[in-house]
Design a protein that fits this description.
Layout lengths: L1 E6 L22 H11 L6 E4 L3 H9 L5 E2 L21 H9 L12 H13 L5 E6 L1 H11 L4 H6 L7 E4 L1
Helix pairs in contact: 4-5
Length: about 170
């Protein structure tokens, strides 16, 4: 089974702001970015699953795909950090998170282990051969760790641009 992953396009939020579960709209560059995503799509997918957050739904609708929404592929919940400038977050908390990326629970939010658990459950139930997910960076990192043969620590440090597409065999 091949897992195809698309990260949503750029969100409408000031640079340097922490966000995960915030239901952000897309940026003014959406149409250009969405066309670029469309050019990367393969012909068919067995199933398409989309995060319920607006920035993913708008892309799926633009791509005119038949899809199912699944809450398990939402971005990590950054709790008290959501919508806060990274520079305004206590550096000791950020350092604790960086030092224990898997186990540290963001105040009022999730641990990356929680993301791994829910994404792992989702992946274990996938039907079909070629599934497409329109989702978020944290979920894609979880997929790299769970299906892509990367350690959690390596996967957590990888990055993927807005509108990027990748496949994991």
């Amino acid at each position: 089974m091949t897992l195809h992953l698309i990260r949503h396009t750029s969100p409408h939020i000031p640079e340097g702001t922490c966000y995960g579960r915030l239901d952000l709209d897309v940026s003014d560059t959406f149409a250009v970015e969405a066309r670029q995503v469309q050019s990367k799509l393969e012909n068919t997918y067995s199933n398409v699953f989309v995060s319920p957050l607006r920035r993913c739904l708008k892309l799926a609708e633009y791509l005119n795909l038949s899809f199912e929404v699944d809450c398990r592929i939402q971005e990590m919940n950054f709790g008290d950090w959501e919508g806060v400038s990274w520079s305004d977050i206590d550096p000791a908390q950020i350092n604790s998170w960086v030092d224990d990326i898997v186990g540290y629970r963001v105040p009022g939010g999730e641990r990356f282990q929680d993301v791994l658990d829910r994404v792992g459950e989702f992946l274990s139930e996938l039907p079909g051969e070629d599934n497409l997910l329109i989702t978020h960076s944290g979920v894609i990192k979880a997929c790299w760790a769970l299906r892509g043969g990367l350690s959690v620590e390596v996967a957590a440090k990888r990055s993927m641009g807005f509108g990027d597409y990748l496949s994991i065999p």
